[in-house]
Amino acid sequence: MANNAFADGITGNRLDPQEYDRNFADLHAPLDKHEALVASDRCYFCYDAPCTKACPTEIDIPMFIRQIQTDNPLGAAKTIFDQNILGGMCARVCPTETLCEEACVRMAGEGKPVEIGRLQRYATDIAMEQGRQFYERAAETGKSVAVVGAGPAGLAAAHRLAMHGHSVTIYDAKPKPGGLNEYGIATYKTTNNFAQSEVDYVLGIGGIEVRTGQKLGRDITLAELKESHDAVFLGIGLAGVNDLDVKHDDADGADDAVSFIAGLRQARDKADVPVGRKVVVIGGGMTAIDAAVQSKLLGAETVTVVYRRGRDRMNASPYEQDLAASKGVNLRFNLMPKKVLAKKGRVTGIELEYTAVKDGKLEGTGETVKLECDQILKAIGQAFEPDAVGGKKPSLALEKGRIKVDGEGRTSMTGVWAGGDCILGGEDLTVTAVAQGRDAAESIHRALAG
Question: Mind listing the pLDDT tens digit for each residue in 404-419?
């Protein structure tokens, strides 16, 4: 993100230190024991468990809630970790309102679901704080697996492979492991360096080596990994960021939201993170909402999210939209960027065109509006970088710009599996990436054992 040329007062002490602490405190306070017992008592323990069916990792939700109800949080944690070793992070960042909690029969009957996410956090936090490891490595198999990417998919795959007795080496381009959980999640959703604590917990099983600063296609190649390991799992995510592709979209102050969020996540002092007085965020997904809310919490005077379609088409859930509105973020719809306005190379505003759907296609109406701003955050999606797997002539089959895999995560190249956001069918959700990494690891284990 650009760090210069902001007007006086934009960086520095925009807010009192106490305000930063309040603004970026835990979005949802953890449940205490009494609250967890009360919340667990609302579960009907449905025999067909629609909540479990709605969970991409298929956690036995009624089981772990019953274990909490009987004052067995460690048993509940094991039930969760059996299916999702990153259950602690998923409890914090999963869109439970559109997954397990939306499917809860309490939601259908009363409009208020069982607080599954907060109960999951209650159990997993206790286990992690006590350092309880529920799994031991099987006897060494003598097999070695390379995992590329230390994000949710890669960590889940590595843990499951280590549990089966394989030696695992994780290669990651960033200085720290964690991937999306470390660099891409809103700060107020995962506080107190939880992402790194969870990485340490996952690695606690043993048999996993992490090598950071190793980017596929730059420092290591797929051919080299295949030569030195018995199998390879790719969980490399989406490293590319889409541009607006309009005039002046490279002006100073027109930044990508992914870098903005990563910079904030790694900042020691939030007062040092540059933010505009008037910020416009382009996009309709979780990244757009996270960037917008955090801009406001950093002290921006006005923040506006602009999305090209209607509210009902936003990828961000109604809950996240309401959260943004509650923080003072303006949401405007049916507007698409036409031109970034700049003066002497510096953003001064943005011109937008109203849109409408005609014959099933989104089109501009010709009517425009200008919004004054001194910072634009682009959150219009990320893209797979084919250079990682061979560039214009990729060594793996791609489809619709991502790696093509079968039902077990196998790519077109023998001995190579993939999962998470980099594959066709990835849903850009932590919990889905975990499920794909876990399932691919089981497929790898079957192949190596066979």
Answer: 999 999 999 999 999 9
